[in-house]
Structures are given as structure tokens and as C-alpha cells.
Design goal:
The protein is α+β, with helices and mostly antiparallel strands. The protein folds into 2 domains: 116 residues, no CATH class; 204 residues, no CATH class. Helix content is 53%, strand content 14%. It contains 16 helices and 9 strands. The chain has a 4-stranded mixed sheet. The protein has a 3-stranded antiparallel sheet with strand order 1-4-3. A two-stranded antiparallel ribbon has the order 2-5. A hairpin with a 4-residue loop joins strand 7 and strand 8. It is globular and about 60 Å long. About 15% of the residues have low confidence.
Amino acid sequence: MKKLEDGVKELFTSENYQNYLRTMSKFHHYSFNNTLLIALQKPDATLVAGYGAWQQKFHRQVKKGEHGITVIAPVPVKEKDLKDRDPADPALSGDQDEKIHMFFRPATVFDISQTEGEPLPSIGVDELTGSAEGYQSFMEAMAALSPVPIRFDEIEGGAKGYYHTAYKEIVIQKDMSEAQTMKTCVHEVSHAILHDRDHMKAEGLTKDRYTKEVEAESVAFAVCAHFMLDTSDYSFPYIAGWSSSVDMKELKASMDTIRKTAGEIIESVEVELEKQVEAPELSAEKPSVLAALSKEKEQLKAEKAPLETVKAELIADRPHRMTAGKEAVL
């Protein structure tokens, strides 16, 4: 536990934090503690399992001389089984009044790079979205999981996008590179999921601006890293200052929120992408998100909608938008 506590303290520098997020993107099913333990011991790990699991489930063997990665494993024990245990056993620290007791023990796992044997099957989703060819599919998947509509527009002031908590919509700067559009989209969807004003009020949550930005940007980094999008332009120069301004309980709560949200987005995107891979004819027949937006824009032009009037209203309403809750972005 001492190593874990020291690791938490050392985590919050820009470089260390990015390494942690990369590890977390691969192991989003793991707890914050185990993700951090893996990152500290083998930051280049990509897939871990126990010695027996590699043999029995994957038909692979741990290479001779490899050192394992220590994690914390839950051990459920029925109350009747406790009678046969040594009372001095340090694992017996749970609530003795429950029928099922949950204890935790150190466990050893190994990364796939430390094993050899049969190759693992690949579904090819990572390769699909890590390239320009996957842009359309990725954006459609994000639109499907977003809790609010996504649209493209000119945004004044240099912002690449924002989530408007009053209007319940995400706006992304149009004509950006595909990679930047994908990153911005994940960032803003994260805001919409985590920081919607009504949702936070209902949950009794309060978060300052820095916490919101750390959470949204961290989720975006982890999701992009998982799908092999370029993350070289990400930086977290403010992470050390932010981490020192909150207590350990809040810190771990935010880290767990980031892990869970990134995991949910990754899994939802993968489900949508797998549907498209399995039924490409259906995906081809379905109009894309961007195509639908373009068609709608052309229809408005054809109908000679009073766009200038709408624009004037938006400009006049800008002070309200700034105060009513634009969750800004990258």
C-alpha cells in the first residue's frame, strides 16, 4: 500500500499522468488502484492475466524468468468458511456479521508481451478508428452515444467546441482536421455526460472549472489513446496544481469518474463500430451524421430561411450563453 500511496503522489506530473491515462485506456475495467499499480510496474502493458489464465484460456505460456505484476484481487469468502481459517490471517479484516465477506489479497498477473503461444483473435476495431478511413464511423458512433445533439458551426474566440448546458447541445468548430474533430467530440461528449447542470444538481455534485476540464480532457485522452489516435498534442500543464488543490478522497473520486466514463465511451463506440463491421450494407444505406447535417443546411438555404436574423439573435444572446453554461473545450 505504501508503494500505491507514493504512486498517487508521483502520478500528477504531465508526463506521468499521460502514461497513466494510456494504461487506463487499456485496462478500464480495472479499479483506479490496480490501474495505477500496472502503470507503475509495467507502463507498456497492453493485456494482463494470471499465470493459469494464460495457460487455460489463451493457450499461452509465461516466458521463463519473467517477473509478474502485482495487483490487488478481491476474494469473496462465505462465513461458514471462516471457521476453518486462522484468526491471525491478515486477510480476515472484513465485516464478520455478513454472510459473504469480501477480502483483498495481492495477486500476480503477466502482460501478453511476457508470454508466448497461440495468437489472440483481433476484431480490428482499433485499426478501423485509428485511421482517417474510420472518421465517419467514429463520429456516427459518438453521435449515437451522445446524450445531446451534435452540430458543426463557426465558433468565434478560438474555441474548438463547447457543450451548452442551457441549450443542451454540443457545437464543434467546422472545417477542422478529422483527428481534431474526433478529439473535440469526445471532450464535449464527456462534458455532456459528466457536467450537465441539471444532472449535477440532481446528484448533489459541485465541481469547479478546473476539475471539469481535467475530467473531460482526461477522458478524451484515454479514449483517443485506446483507438490509436495521435495524442502527441495533449498536455496537462495544470495537473500538478489541480491535484494539490483537492484532498485525496476527491482526487480518487475524479480518477474513478474518468476511468468509468472513458470505459463506457470506449465500449459504446466499439459496439457501434462492430455493428457497422458486421453489417456494412446497413451502414452504407444509413445517411451519415455529417451528410445529414449538410443536407439539412442545404434545405434551409433552399427554403430561404432568415439565417441573418437567426445569426443576429445568437450574437445578441452571446452574453447569456457565456454565463448560462458553455462548457468550453480544448
